[in-house]
From TrEMBL:
Family classification: Belongs to the LysR transcriptional regulatory family.
Entries under PROSITE patterns matching the protein: HTH_LYSR
UniProt cross-references to SUPFAM superfamilies, sorted A to Z: Periplasmic binding protein-like II (SSF53850), Winged helix' DNA-binding domain (SSF46785)
Native organism: Vibrio mediterranei
Protein name in UniProt: LysR family transcriptional regulator
GO biological process, one term: DNA-templated transcription
GO function terms (MF aspect): DNA-binding transcription factor activity; sequence-specific DNA binding
A Pfam family that the UniProt record links to this protein: LysR_substrate
Keyword terms, alphabetized: DNA-binding, Transcription, Transcription regulation
InterPro entries documented for this protein: LysR-type_TF_proteobact-type, LysR_HTH_N, LysR_subst-bd, WH-like_DNA-bd_sf, WH_DNA-bd_sf
Highest rank taxon of the organism: Bacteria
Length: 296
């Protein structure tokens, strides 16, 4: 009986399915199923009730999980004490990052990597942290905007504002805005939230503008690219368009209008499913990401 198989068992329990555990550990689902079957044979008891739709612990499995969890915690604590004595932190972290935030986050991540060179950072491009955190088996994901009901832990790390922008070519062809009321006369590019709702209510300190979407995407990067190519007006986080504003590929509209503040979050599963390295990175990101406000 291997400690890796026991950890696999606890991961299946914590995430609720063989598939989620396979994604989290980058394993084929068949490998997970086989190893759990072998573990059940080794302990001489069925640990899970299996149906086509549900996976649940048997009474024996529940008792075994409680005992094994304590044993694994003691094992990991012993292993970590050895790493600490060598001033080393090890492990692998799968982090989901929006492609349009790479330039902002790379210095923060590289600082962490330099401090903990034995940690393997596995960066994954995402467009929707809520959906992809389990699909890709992520330890941590970056998310901006509204939080939805979920078993995922959401930790607020930053507040930011958005701005109305368009390309110079769009402004030349269709004219600049004189007021928020004129937005309904323009082509607008809107974001689709993880809930499926379209972000067609753009909120400012002076009021809310209702817009008609001519183009919809669930990727901020796609929306930014479409705006640069003159497809319409968008409402984008200022920290993500600093370079484009400086280069002039995007121009601000109604700069006198101040958008209300929105929140940026770290998403991650329940802490008991995270390794020590992931927990340390969460603290690092929580400390460093707020400084990005200085860019906007």
């Amino acid at each position: 009986m291997k400690i890796a198989d026991l950890k696999l068992f606890t991961k299946v329990v914590e995430l609720g399915s063989f598939t989620a555990a396979a994604n989290a550990l980058d394993l084929p689902r068949a490998n997970v199923s086989r190893r759990i079957n072998e573990l059940e044979k080794a302990v001489g008891s069925q640990l899970f009730h299996r149906t086509t739709r549900n996976l649940s612990l048997t009474n024996s499995g529940s008792t075994y999980f409680d005992e094994i969890t304590q044993a694994i915690e003691l094992f990991d604590r012993a292993q970590q004490s050895l790493s600490s004595s060598r001033d080393m932190l090890t492990g692998k972290i799968k982090l989901g990052v929006l492609p349009e935030t790479y330039d902002l986050l790379q210095p923060i991540l590289f600082e962490f990597h330099d401090k903990y060179p034995e940690i393997q950072l596995d960066i994954r491009s995402i467009s929707n942290g809520f959906n992809e955190i389990f699909q890709q088996g992520l330890d941590i994901a970056i998310h901006g905007g509204t939080i939805f009901d979920s078993d995922i832990v959401a930790r607020k790390v930053i507040q930011y504002r958005r701005a109305l922008v368009a390309s110079p070519e769009y402004v030349e062809e269709f004219g600049a805005l004189e007021s928020l009321d004129e937005l309904d006369q323009h082509k607008c590019i809107c974001f689709r939230w993880p809930s499926g709702d379209i972000d067609s209510q753009w909120h400012f300190d002076s009021g809310t503008a209702s817009v008609k979407a001519s183009l919809i995407a669930n990727s901020v990067g796609f929306i930014k690219g479409a705006t640069i190519r003159g497809r319409g007006i968008s409402f984008l986080p200022t920290m993500m368009i600093q370079r484009e504003l400086k280069q002039g590929t995007l121009v601000p509209l109604l700069p006198q209008e101040t958008a209300i503040k929105e929140d940026g979050w770290l998403l991650y599963p329940q802490p008991k499913t995270l390794n020590k390295a992931s927990k340390v990175l969460i603290e690092h990101l929580s400390s460093e990401i707020p400084r990005l406000n200085q860019l906007s």
